Amino acid sequence: MAYLDINHVVRKFGGLVAVNDITVGLEQGEIFGLIGPNGSGKTTLFNTT
């Protein structure tokens, strides 16, 4: 059983899709990093969840 499950997250700003169908599962004690270029939706994903 996952400690944290994020399933099928979508975030839109008008016609712009910032986050599209993101699913992440984390186990307790696991370290997770999210890497990507500027403007790819990393902060938006965390702010949405």
List the helices and strands and how they pair.
Layout: E1 4-13, E2 16-26, H1 42-48
Antiparallel strand pairs: 1-2
Summary?
The protein has one helix spanning 42-48, and strands at residues 4-13, 16-26. It has 49 residues and is mostly beta strands. It has one domain.
Query: If helices are DSSP runs of H or I spanning 4 or more residues, what is the number of helices?
Result: 1
Mean pLDDT: 91
Class based on secondary structure composition and strand pairing: mainly beta
What distance lies between the first and last C-alpha atoms, to the nearest angstrom? 19 Å
Strand order of the largest sheet: 1-2
Biggest sheet details: 2 strands, antiparallel
**Shape by Cα distribution:** globular
Query: What is the strand tally?
Result: 2
Sequence stretches where pLDDT stays below 50 over 5 or more residues: none
Strand content: 35-45%
Indicate how many domains the architecture comprises: 1
- Rg, Å, rounded: 12 Å
What is the string of helix and strand elements?
EEH
Approximate helicity band = 10-25%
Domain ABC transporter: 19-48
InterPro entries: ABC_AA/LPS_Transport (IPR051120), ABC_transporter-like_ATP-bd (IPR003439), P-loop_NTPase (IPR027417)
GO molecular function: ATP binding; ATP hydrolysis activity; L-isoleucine transmembrane transporter activity; L-phenylalanine transmembrane transporter activity; L-valine transmembrane transporter activity
Protein name: ABC transporter domain-containing protein
